Amino acid sequence: MISFINATCSFRKNAGVKNLNFSIDDGEFVFLTGPSGAGKSTLLRLIYMDLFPEKGKVLIRDYDSNKIKDRQIPFLRRKVGMIFQDFQLLKDRNVYQNVAISLYASHYKIREIKSRVYDILNQVGLGHRVHHKPMELSGGEQQRVAIARALVKEPIVLLADEPTGNLDPRVSIELMNLLHKINKKGTAVIIATHNYSLIKRVPGARLIQMNEGEIASIT
Ligand SMILES: Nc1ncnc2c1ncn2[C@@H]1O[C@H](COP(=O)(O)OP(=O)(O)OP(=O)(O)O)[C@@H](O)[C@H]1O
Ligand SMILES: [Mg+2]
C-alpha cells in the first residue's frame, strides 16, 4: 500500500498537538479518538493545511507543508475533503448551490457541474431535496449536504470532525453506513470521534488514539 499522508512534526507551544508521527494509506478507514483536548481537531487541521507545524513536515501526496504556496492550498483541498462540525452551509443558497459551489472555481463546464452535483446528491440520498434551503432540512440532512459538498470534488480523503455529534443514534448509524460505502469506492476516510460505539461498526478500521497532544497508540 502507498501512504498518501506522511507526517513527522512537532510544536513547541501554542498548538493543540506536540509530536506527531503517522502515515495513512490509500483507501484506509481511520478513527481518531481520545479525550477532549487530546488534539484530534488539530491533527485534522494539519492534514487540511489549515495549520502548519513548527518543526518537521506533513506530506499529502506531493504537497509538502514546508513548501506549499498559498495559491496551491485550493488545489490541495480538492484532494482533501473536510466536513466541519458545524457544516458551514450557506443559508441563503439551496442544496444544489451549496454543493455546486465546490466546483465553480474549477474548470468544469456548467453541464458537467450539474451532472456531478445530481449524482452525488443521489448517492447521499438527497435527490429529493435539491431545491431546499439548509433551514428547511433536518440536522442529518444538512450533514449529508456537507458530505456531498466535500465529495463532489472526488477527494482522495474525506476528513470528518465529530460527524455524529448532534445526530440521534439512528441517523448516526445511517451516516456511518454512508461513510463506509464511500470508503468502499476508494476514498480514504478519517473520522475524529468520542463515540466508541461507532468504531465497532466498521470492521477493519484503524484506530489512532490520542492523548495530550500526542499519539498514544496506533492499531
Ligand atoms: N492554536 C492553539 N493555541 C493554543 N492551544 C490550542 C490551539 N488549538 C488548540 N489548542 C489546545 O490544544 C488542545 C487540543 O485541541 P483540539 O481542538 O485539537 O482537541 P480535540 O481532541 O479535538 O478535542 P475535542 O474532543 O474537545 O474536540 C486543547 O487543549 C486546545 O485548547
Ligand atoms: Mg475537536
Describe the protein's architecture and organization:
It is a single chain. The chain has about 220 residues and is α/β, with parallel strands linked by helices. The two termini are about 15 Å apart. A hairpin with a 2-residue loop joins strand 4 and strand 5. It has seven helices and ten strands. The longest helix is centred in the last third of the chain and has 16 residues, at about 170-185. A six-stranded mixed beta sheet has the order 6-7-8-3-9-10, sandwiched between helices. A four-stranded antiparallel beta sheet has the order 2-1-4-5, covered by helices on one side. Magnesium ion (MG) binds near residues 40, 41 and 161.
Which descriptors would you attach to this protein?
single chain; 219 residues; alpha/beta; 6-stranded mixed β-sheet; 4-stranded antiparallel β-sheet; 10 strands; globular; binds adenosine-5'-triphosphate; binds magnesium ion
Summarize the helices and strands and which ones pair or pack.
Layout: E1 3-10, E2 19-25, E3 29-33, H1 40-47, E4 55-60, E5 63-64, H2 73-79, E6 80-83, H3 95-104, H4 110-123, H5 139-151, E7 157-161, H6 169-184, E8 188-192, H7 196-199, E9 206-211, E10 214-218
Parallel strand pairs: 3-8, 3-9, 6-7, 7-8
Antiparallel strand pairs: 1-2, 1-4, 4-5, 9-10
Helix pairs in contact: 3-4, 3-5, 4-5
Bound molecules: adenosine-5'-triphosphate and magnesium ion.
Number of strands: 10
Q: What's the pLDDT, averaged over the residues?
A: 90
Give the DSSP E fraction (strand runs of 2 or more residues).
Answer: 15-25%
The computed structural class is alpha/beta
